[in-house]
Amino acid sequence: MSLPKLYKDVVIVGAGAAGMMCAIEAGKRGRSVILIDHASKLAEKIRISGGGRCNFTNRYTTAENFISGNPHFCRSALARFTPQDFIALIEKHGIRYHEKKLGQLFCDGSSQQIIDMLHGECTAVGIEWQMPSTIKEIVNLSSDRKKPGTESNFSVITERNTIETKSLVIATGGLSIPQIGASALGYQIANQFGVRVTPLRPGLVGLIFSADEFSAFKEISGVAIDAEVSYNGASFRENVLFTHRGLSGPAILQISSYWQLGKPLHLNLLPQQHAQQIFLLYRRSAVLLPNLLARYLPKRFVQTWCTSMLARLAIAAKPICDYRENELLLIADNLHNWQIIPSGTIGYKKAEVTIGGIDTLELSSKTMESKHTPGLFFIGEVVDVTGHLGGFNFQWAWSSGYAAGQVV
Ligand code: FDA
């Protein structure tokens, strides 16, 4: 039995944050739109985001909050659909929200409110849903333009039907959390059309360390310190959390998006003090180093850190007054510049995002359309634009979805 054939102005693959935003905008312009997703539950990533409260945007979003092969690429879309525009949508739906810190906006209730709002907006403009549904093949009809009367650019073959369309929007997101539906389909479609994809790796992710280097720190799993973590010019000051496998917490998640395998991270354990000044103040004191540092850092951390650091520097544990000047200098240097080399990340299973994606050189920054394949669009996380932690990734999904939605 042959499968039904239909025509839609716009086929969007991936009914997540970016896909739904694009559908709403295209629908408002009177386009016939179908959203296809292989998941049976709508927008699971939105549901689990922000600890269940969805950090849906950041008031202070700028291009500097994004990592991309072309740091300017995101500017145009971010300027045309701003955090304020999304806030206006939230307020129109009466969703109450609050700022947690640093401009990060969360729902007072639950992330389900955002999903319901987007679903409702889609319904209001007549979007069709096809989910769960698997994409079997995408045929490029524009390469077959000899056929007279062929208006469509693509034929999307699913297990249920064949849909011809002028505009194909790929909004399949990244590779993180495969257990709730992440797949590599977006990158595979890019490959099929000869669209370059930059190298992919997990971002906003916990870091792990080799057993011998970090064995002592396992015992302080659960302890958090306020530190500044730096890598190659990028630097974040927030909590660093010790876990049973390594490090996590906001400062580590942020730096993980920059960090490259095999390279060291630098931690300033006393970002608000000068260790040398502290030592100068206690120069004649018989206080032991860990006891002195415990006035500035959590005691359990200090005990473990001092034991490991002093062993590495081959310096004995003794009262401050007994240290030589050069020993104190070395200790101070280690406090402000503790170098650690992670052995890896905890991977896509736990990462919040995928770094890398569709090469921005391949796309129009105004419309997200492929420069070489007319009618093919990539939006959201599948593109090589990754936000910092704090609501920036959703803002990119809204802004890029909006940009494509104006032209599809
Ligand atoms: P998204 O992943 O939302 O949607 C992609 C859709 O494509 C999914 O519905 C998927 O099922 C579908 N799909 C995939 N493969 C397919 C296939 N082969 N066929 C059909 N459909 C397919 N960001 C933020 O700004 N604030 C936050 O609070 C958080 N919190 C957070 C927590 C956790 C645990 C994670 C993992 C991530 C976050 N994020 C976040 C990141 C944020 O969720 C993410 O960047 C956006 O959801 C990306 O939106 P997209 O629409 O691009 O992809």
TrEMBL record:
Keywords: FAD, Flavoprotein
Domain RsdA/BaiN/AoA(So)-like Rossmann fold-like residues, every copy: 9-406
Cofactor requirements of the protein: FAD
Domain called RsdA/BaiN/AoA(So)-like insert: residue spans: 201-353
Entry keyword Flavoprotein: yes
Span of the signal peptide: none
Pfam families to which the protein is assigned, alphabetical: HI0933_like, HI0933_like_1st
UniProt cross-references to InterPro entries, sorted A to Z: BaiN-like, BaiN-like_dom_sf, FAD/NAD-bd_sf, RsdA/BaiN/AoA(So)-like_dom, RsdA/BaiN/AoA(So)_Rossmann
PANTHER family xref list: OS12G0638800 PROTEIN (PTHR42887:SF2)
Entry protein name: Flavoprotein, HI0933 family
Organism: Nitrosomonas ureae
